[in-house]
Amino acid sequence: MSAVFKSVTDARSTKSKEDTADSGPDKKFRQRVLILSSRGVTYRHRHLLQDLSSLLPHSRKDSKLDTKSKLFQLNELADLYNCNNILFFEARKREDLYLWLSKPPNGPTIKFHVQNLHTMEELHFSGNCLKGSRPLLSFDKRFDEKPYLMVIKEMMTQTFGVPKGARKSKPFVDHVMSFTVADGKVWIRCYQICEADLSKKDAKAVENGEDEEGKKGGKKSATTRAQTEVSLLEIGPRLVLTPIIIQEGSFGGPIIYENKEYVSPNVLRAEYRNRKAQKFNVRNAQKVGREVKRKVLKLDKHRVGGGGGKDWEELQAGLKDLFDE
Amino acid sequence: MAKAKLRQMLAADKGKVPYLEKQKKLQKEANKRKRKLAEKEAEEEGDDSGDEGLNEGGEGEDWEDESSDEEEERVIDVSRLNDSDSDSEGDDDEDEDSEEDEDEDEEMEEPKLNGKHDTSKPTTQDDEEDEQEEDDEDVPLSEVDEEDEDPEADIIPRQKLTIDNHSALLSAHASIALPIKKSTPFSLHHTLTTTDPVEIKDVHDDLTRELAFYTQALDAAKRGRAALLSEGAPFTRPTDYFAEMVKSEEHMGKIKDKMKEEAAQKQASADAKRQRDLKKFGKQVQVARLQERQKEKREMLDKIAVLKRKRAGADLGDAHEDDPFDIAIEKAAKATGRDRRGGGSGGPPNAKRQKRNEKFGFGGKKKFAKSGDAMSSGDMSGFSSKGMKKNSFGSGKKVKAPRLGKSKRQGRR
């Protein structure tokens, strides 16, 4: 008995080995993502992190990174956890969020600015999906138009696409992640796929009609497939990414792409503040001008009620000067 | 030739070995010559040999031409560097138009553009050649501007240039790209690209934008579903398959509550709106209803009067006529069921009721109704001197017995 078992298991093991050998590309498709953030994230950033890690079963969440300057440390960290993708959220000033997408040890790094961030918690969308089901990734055609977008697409595919047979993944597909390029930004949405059978009466009528026509059972499956109606429900989260730079190495190396259109939020804020300050400045200038005028007219000496003849003469002289100017 | 000397000096300044550079240039020249020869041979096979000599002479000229060309090119480059919107694609197009022969120079364009920002160059195999050439061609902006002999030109503000190193980007892409071919099963990668680029008219209009995203995702879902089903991969979750969801029960409950609340709010607002509308027309409706009631009442009274008259006459008539009469009165009673309570069977209320109504209410001004005025105080109709003499029992006849004498009163005790 044991011999039989052994032979069977042997056969199986050899078979599985062959399988792995055959599915050489499978190894290439194996992905693992390290998700972590810097210090100083707000609760929304934290919730986004949570949402993403719940959507990506092949991810490894790690504690916050202490440094914001020595990001190359992340490479070692990724190596430690056997991760070949890094999703690093860097928060600045407790309001700006930057997303670093990298492929350690030597792949490119993309830095995004995250805007219009809405987490699942606050969005109240009625969609829901299995934890760990593999998403369909839908990309805009624009991603193939420019090299930097191609790189972004590839990185997104590898980070957000759950590899087949990932540890905690489920075999069914019930959600779509869509990536769209618009306005120089990448917009990310996540939808649940709802399959609704058409009402049974309709289905029966259709089937009967087709039976009368004399179609065979083999085609029935196709017809039933056509009968389910696919619709979508949004799950969340929502975010918009503005690419800033692409580096050739992983958290290092030369910059091979830089977005000219990107304006730092700091600059924007400064401009806003300056515009507000303009009012004050104008008023201040007026005040100074008024004082100067008063001095020229020697009005600072001249008080109401205390007007002497001399003062009056002075005033007249001052006025004359002013008009002469 | 003076320019060539200048260039040499520049190179020396930068710490370059002129010998190596020269060698490189010569190599380039040789390459070019070879190529040209090959072209010529291809074109004029079987032509005179005398032409060749001419060609060689031409090449000698070419050498000089080319060097001057390079100078011009550099000037163009400077202008490009100064240009704020350095769209690399447009530059590429220009290059392709202007110089068909010099492929190598074309390749150099991109690194030259970004050379200002990062001196350390990408070290990929493809770019190695570019790098070498780039080193000997790249002149810092400040040095070039010195030729203008304009002191203020030195203080050029650093303008932001777009770095878009296509070759480096493509090589980076190639190094990480997944080996997805047409033969790879869809279930392995789950990646779909739309057939047409997604067009959004106004990105800031939420509705159109989200609709575009939705249609993109829906299309992907349909295509992906078809692909997976045709491959025989599992797609739909069976109804009896339960597992942890991304959103917890608690969260979904919250969402449900929220939706309910929203629906209730919507309902409430719709109701309120309806009420408001009703109120607007309420007055008219009320007036109409009152008039209707009045009319009904009048009709009823008429009917009853007719019936009464009939009854008075019916006493003389035979019994046969009674039946329709009874029915009629029943009907009338039914119809007036509501009015009955108020006014009895029609007609004004009795005198007492009227008086009381006047006094206590039912129409008219209530305030000061009971207080006296000049008329009431001057009204002496209720007074009689007799009344004053009446005892408490009301009869004037029974007069109080006169007071008895003292002895009698004491005797009583």
UniProtKB/TrEMBL annotation, chain A:
Domain Brix: 31-252
Claim: Nucleus is one of the keywords in the record: yes
GO CC field: nucleolus
InterPro entries with a match to the protein in the record: Brix (IPR007109), BRX1 (IPR026532)
Cell compartments where the protein resides: Nucleus, Nucleolus
Keywords, in A-Z order: Nucleus, Ribosome biogenesis
Pfam family, one: Brix
Record SMART domains: Brix
Family: Belongs to the BRX1 family.
Name of the protein described by the UniProt record: Ribosome biogenesis protein brx1
TrEMBL record, chain B:
Species of provenance: Orbilia ellipsospora
InterPro entries cross-referenced by the UniProt entry: Ebp2 (IPR008610)
Pfam families: Ebp2
Compartments where located: Nucleus, Nucleolus
Biased composition (Low complexity): 371-396
Chain intervals with Basic residues compositional bias: 397-413
Record-level GO cellular component terms: nuclear periphery; nucleolus; preribosome, large subunit precursor
Biased composition (Basic and acidic residues): 13-30, 110-120, 271-280, 328-342
UniProt record, GO biological process: ribosomal large subunit biogenesis; rRNA processing
Protein name as it appears in the record: rRNA-processing protein and EBNA1-binding protein ebp2
Region described as Disordered: 1-160, 261-290, 311-413
Keyword annotations from UniProtKB, A to Z: Coiled coil, Nucleus, Ribosome biogenesis
Signal sequence region: none
Principal cellular location given in the protein's record: nucleus
Annotated Acidic residues bias: 41-74, 84-109, 125-153
Similarity comment text for this entry: Belongs to the EBP2 family.
Keyword NADP appears in the UniProt entry: no
